[in-house]
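Aim 2 progress. For tRNA(Met) cytidine acetate ligase, the working sequence is reproduced below.
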Amino acid sequence: MAGVVGVVAEYNPFHNGHLYQLQQIKQAFPDDIIIVAMSGNFLQRGEPACLDKWTRTQEALQNDADLVVELPVLACVQPADRFAFGAVSLLSALGADKLVFGAEHSSYDFMSFARKVAGVHGEFHKYDESYARSFQTAIKKELGHAVDQPNDLLGLAYAKANYRLGEPLDLFPVQRVETSYHDQSLHKGAQIASASAIRKNFSLSKKTQKKLAPYLPQVSLNDLVEGPFVSWDDFWPLLRYKVVSSNLADLGQIYGMSEGIEYRIQEQTQRLPLDINFDMWVKKVKTKRFTYTHLARLAVAILLNISEQEVQAYNSEPYIRLLGFGGDGRKQLSRVKKNCPFPIYSRVSQDDRKEQLAVDYRAGKIYQLFNGVEQDAKRAPIVF
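Predicted structure tokens for this construct:
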């Protein structure tokens, strides 16, 4: 009997590395259905997606994905372990029995690691370093070696989530090839570049488009060129306005605020010159306790006005938003719909946008300010 493979993705943008992963899945499990749980218009690493969720869904469906669902923004603003738990829970609810993910060390037995470190926590009260660094130190002590590469860390987070859920999924790491996650260079003769390198090197010039062609499927390159291409540069003035104009009590209610960081955020923002950009802002606000990614996620929460209560409400009552599917994806939905533990939304009604989908709808409207395309109202899943 055919199985179901789950993939957690951003596709920011969809490039040859993502294509390679999906091809590896098809080669290893030719009869299986592929479900992609994809971050929407704001991503877990704390940035707006360069192309909207509908464009990236279409790209995934054109490259072997059978069903694409949205990871709600309330999952994406959470730290890696909580984000991973939301993603793995969602995929398991949709019937996935396997999870495939990229890793810097595909030989790692991530489930074995997860069992060993299930009760391990960092020294959160050690104030001269971030919790992430403290946690990595604790993991190294328990396992005898570091697990500190970006995709390895996410792989461990997925494994820990799977362990908490009773191990409903078999894990299959795929070796990351040719480039590291943080590599921002385009290497001549290579066919794979990191998403960050592609974003950094993208512009509308013909020369740059030609330079990016080896690293992207043609449809992805076309979508980038046709745009609109969105980045923190677009949203930065809104974020700055929100920080400067808010009172400290309101800032303190934003999800992820802790240890009085709202005081530093507002003070530094008010003092900085007008010509700085988002990256400069993060570097000025940053302390030893808060990583760049933590602050970037916090910036998304500020921009979208996400409260602790809204995140906790989602964690208590998760849901699934359909973005697109092909024929096999439709069949899988029919199989699981009756017994799925989470509500499944295919459209956003007037009531939905005021209730369970309120934050996603708000996020879509803010993204639309610079994308120019309606993200939720009257949008139906893409049928491929």
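The longest strand covers residues 33-39. This observation will guide construct design in the next reporting period.
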